[in-house]
């Protein structure tokens, strides 16, 4: 694992993935982080991963395509 220290306003760039992570604000023990990434890159908070996995498994893609009229 790579661990980097950043100050408010500083960024980390993943050039091969076209992703920039910027520290927007630090206030006490809270950090506001922004992610600039391609639309197809999923970014999730770790505590939501189990919920997101369950939601993804329950999606009926055929039904979604029918609803959008793009069967």
UniProtKB/TrEMBL annotation:
SUPFAM superfamilies: CsrA-like. GO terms for biological process: bacterial-type flagellum organization; mRNA catabolic process; negative regulation of translational initiation; regulation of bacterial-type flagellum assembly; regulation of carbohydrate metabolic process. It is found in: Cytoplasm. The keyword Cytoplasm applies. It holds the Pfam family CsrA. GO terms for cellular component: cytosol. The keyword RNA-binding applies. One of its GO terms (molecular function) is mRNA 5'-UTR binding. PANTHER family: CARBON STORAGE REGULATOR (PTHR34984:SF1). A translational regulator that binds mRNA to regulate translation initiation and/or mRNA stability. Usually binds in the 5'-UTR at or near the Shine-Dalgarno sequence preventing ribosome-binding, thus repressing translation. Its main target seems to be the major flagellin gene, while its function is anatagonized by FliW. Homodimer; the beta-strands of each monomer intercalate to form a hydrophobic core, while the alpha-helices form wings that extend away from the core. This is Translational regulator CsrA. It comes from Novipirellula artificiosorum. The gene is csrA.
């Amino acid at each position: 694992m790579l661990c980097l220290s950043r100050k408010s306003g500083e960024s980390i760039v993943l050039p091969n993935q076209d992703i920039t992570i910027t520290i927007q604000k630090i206030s006490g023990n809270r950090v506001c982080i922004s992610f600039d990434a391609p639309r197809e890159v999923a970014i999730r908070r770790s505590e939501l991963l189990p919920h997101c996995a369950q939601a993804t498994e329950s999606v009926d893609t055929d039904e979604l395509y029918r609803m959008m009229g793009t069967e």
